[in-house]
Amino acid sequence: AIPLVVAISTAVSAQNGLLIRNRTAFEESRKISALVFDKTGTLTKGDFGVTRVEAVDQQFEPDELLRLSSALEQSSEHPIAVGIIKKVKEKDIAVPKPENFNAITGKGVEAKVEGKDVKVVSPGYLKDEHISIPDGAYSSAAETVVFVLVDNKLAGYIALADEIRPESAEAIKVFKNNNIKVMMATGDNETVAKAVSEELGLDGYYSEVLPHQKVEIVKELQSKGEFVAMTGDGVNDAPALAQANVGIAVGSGTDVAAETADIILVNSNPQDIANLILFGKATYNKMI
Ligand code: ADP
Ligand code: MG
């Protein structure tokens, strides 16, 4: 059966944006009963535009918040970073040089900029540091918000918007028709997670998820008898991809995610997963 599966997997991956690293993953894709997608860049386009920049500490002008943030974000590949840098370029703001740049796992980035300790972080980070979220930060359900800290004090925030991929809705129809539960696990805030989940009619979502929590999410579903597929794009996602019955690395994800995954979803398009599952079911039904 091995050469047949190899031949089929090759054919499927040639037709779709899939690379199958583990041949049993193709065989097992037909058993998937729950899919856990990441949000940014998979269910959504991952193409963020800055919608608002608000100062909380009036010492800082919005452009100054962008300028300080850009020093850090130029070293990050996160879609949020790409969105912030796009805005800074549009405004012709000169990007300062950072020192001691550090990515805070699943929470943001930090560096020294002109002698100041600057951080651009998630709402979860604020919670951990017992810093309250300013009024108005979540005035729109469609916005992802990151917070700018200067010397560990909240200076302001930057709101960004992304769009749902049109292909996501199509793919979700296929999953529903095949009785596959579709969930989302995102590091993004509750408001955005809920809005995306409702718009796509998902069966559930997990928001403000830290990388190690993704493993727990997979285990919890497995303990309920689900055969779980999970997507992920980062180094941090590797343990969850390994835990999943079918681990799917998306897009130009890091090598570590790709090395752990059973399948690589080249175009980050959920519809390619739908095609894989349908193709797997059809193939094995014929064989039996
Ligand atoms: P996701 O891929 O679901 O956004 P991540 O683990 O990549 O999850 O990020 C979690 C959160 O950490 C983001 O939603 C954001 O709030 C924050 N974050 C991560 N990287 C950056 C960055 N470069 N700049 C600002 N915030 C970031
Ligand atoms: Mg991510």
From TrEMBL:
The keyword Acetylation does not apply. This is Copper-translocating P-type ATPase. Belongs to the cation transport ATPase (P-type) (TC 3.A.3) family. Type IB subfamily. It is found in: Cell membrane; Endomembrane system. The chain holds residues 372 to 659 of 717 of the full protein. Keywords: ATP-binding, Cell membrane, Hydrolase, Membrane, Metal-binding, Nucleotide-binding, Translocase, Transmembrane, Transmembrane helix. The lineage of its organism: Bacteria, Pseudomonadati, Bacteroidota, Cytophagia, Cytophagales. It comes from the Bacteria. It comes from Fulvivirga kasyanovii. Its main location: membrane. Coiled coil: none annotated. One of its GO terms (molecular function) is hydrolase activity.
